[in-house]
Specification:
two-stranded antiparallel sheet; single chain; alpha+beta; 9-stranded mixed sheet; 25% helix; 13 strands
């Protein structure tokens, strides 16, 4: 009986997560220490908007009020994160100024200029590919404090750009860091062990 109830709860959780993921267009994976991998999902853009690849997209509220820059974050080989309708130039870049507590993160310089104007189309997949950066310990610590999800604006560089014409094209989601995953796993094992002990008594 317990395992049947547990199965139903798991199914409800999966359905809730899959519904929430519908608008997720980028996923940030922090499961490797001192690294972040940003990957496209099959999520569809929520808006049609065009702009400059030199400006890029802005992940709002990802890094909060912690003061640090992305200087020292090293892009690893094989990066091909790019707008869905564009061709990657292999050099997606992260930007966050260390001069003040801008709460977001900027990703830019993703395409090779084909087509000449970067764009998103409503109802069409937003991104493709992925990219991994090695981070300093300070940068990684800040990423670990990120919210689990938030809005992505195109095209915007910093928080002040959001006063203009950028539009929300989707959301980002953050994969739990190693500690959270380990705690979740231990909790699930503990519940299963307790249920088994009860059934044996």
């Amino acid at each position: 009986m317990f395992f049947r109830l547990l199965g139903h709860c798991f199914l409800v959780c999966v359905l809730m997560v899959s519904t929430a993921q519908a608008a997720v267009v980028l996923q940030l994976d922090l499961s490797t220490v001192n690294q972040v991998t940003i990957s496209a999902t099959t999520g569809l853009s929520l808006a049609s908007v065009s702009g400059s690849d030199g400006t890029g997209v802005y992940l709002k509220d990802l890094l909060g009020d912690r003061v640090f820059s992305t200087s020292g974050a090293t892009r690893l080989a094989g990066a091909n994160l790019v707008y869905f309708n564009a061709t990657s130039d292999g050099s997606p870049s992260l930007f966050r100024s260390g001069n003040g507590p801008d709460p977001g993160l900027n990703i830019y310089s993703m395409d090779n200029g084909t087509p000449s104007t970067a764009s998103f189309t409503s109802g069409v997949q937003a991104f493709k590919g992925s990219a991994t950066w090695s981070l300093t310990a300070q940068q990684y610590a800040a990423f670990l404090q990120a919210p689990t999800s938030g809005d992505i604006y195109a095209f915007a560089d910093i928080i002040n750009d959001l006063n203009g014409v950028p539009q929300v094209i989707g959301q980002y989601s953050v994969v739990p860091e190693p500690t959270s995953m380990a705690i979740f796993g231990l909790g699930a094992l503990g519940m299963a062990y307790r249920a088994r002990r009860k059934s044996m008594v």
